[in-house]
Specification:
Blueprint (H helix, E strand, L loop, with lengths): L2 E6 L3 H12 L4 E7 L2 H11 L3 E5 L1 E2 L2 E2 H11 L5 E6 L4 H10 L3 E4 L4 H12 L7 H12 L4 H4 L3 H11 L4 H8 L3 H15 L4 H13 L11
Parallel strand pairs: 1-2, 1-3, 3-6, 6-7
Antiparallel strand pairs: 4-5
Helix pairs in contact: 2-3, 3-4, 4-6, 8-10, 8-11, 9-10
Protein name: Two component transcriptional regulator, LuxR family
GO molecular function: DNA binding
Pfam families: GerE, Response_reg
Length: about 220
């Protein structure tokens, strides 16, 4: 029996390229495609593939949510490989929690993708144990409510403070005026209960050591 694969990506050219790659393998067969989360949830149960390759970002949702739902509704559940253009720790942790077998970037070599499909179909995982352990630890440890109170922009600025950047350098990085950055810094220090910038830098560094992912970069 060959390995049946279902593809979910909103870019047709990506689906065609991956389908062409996999269909060329004698032991693989692409049994369906979808361009959105809604289509995927409607079509994957009928196809009941061995492996589902899912784009992380879809027009109407996330591939991670699709992974979680199809794995809960099908028995046996398909192995899910997340395929994305973005290296995002938050999404990686989400994929692990959802039960994905792998998290791959779209610049992965064709032979490596084929190998990943075979590994996933055989019940293997492409996520290293250390990364999985960090994700589980993050689930067990509640998030600091002070950090939760920060806006996405304040979280990004906090991460940049930890790297030693000045307000002017942070402004250049995020395309903000220096005065605007100064206002953000004052706000985040107040929310965290710190009086000095160095305290915020130490706090951010301790989060990294505890396995907390940095804030995602702004979309440009």
């Amino acid at each position: 029996m060959g390995i049946s694969v279902f593809l979910v990506d909103d870019h047709e050219i990506v689906r065609r390229g991956v389908a062409h790659l996999l269909d060329a393998e004698p032991d693989m067969d692409v049994v369906g495609e979808a361009a959105s989360a809604t289509e995927a949830l409607a079509r994957i149960p009928a196809a009941h593939p061995d492996v589902a390759i899912l784009d992380v970002r879809l027009p109407d949702g996330e591939g991670i949510s699709v992974c979680r739902e199809v794995r809960s509704m099908l028995d046996p559940p398909p192995a899910c490989l997340m395929l994305t253009s973005y290296s995002d720790d938050q999404a990686l942790f989400g994929a692990i929690v959802a039960g994905a077998a792998g998290y791959l970037l779209k610049d992965v070599a064709g032979t490596n993708l084929v190998g990943a499909v075979r590994t996933a179909a055989a019940g293997g995982s492409l996520i290293d144990p250390e990364t999985a352990a960090r994700a589980l630890e993050r689930l067990r440890t509640p998030e600091d409510p002070r950090y939760e109170s920060l806006s996405p922009q304040e979280r990004r600025i906090l991460d940049l403070i930890a790297t030693g950047l000045t307000n002017r350098q942070i402004g250049a990085e995020l395309f903000l005026a220096e005065k605007t950055v100064k206002n953000y810094v004052s706000s985040l220090l107040h929310k965290l209960g710190f009086a000095r910038r160095t305290e915020a830098a130490v706090y951010a560094a301790s989060r990294r050591r505890a396995g907390r992912p940095p804030a995602p970069p702004p979309q440009r």
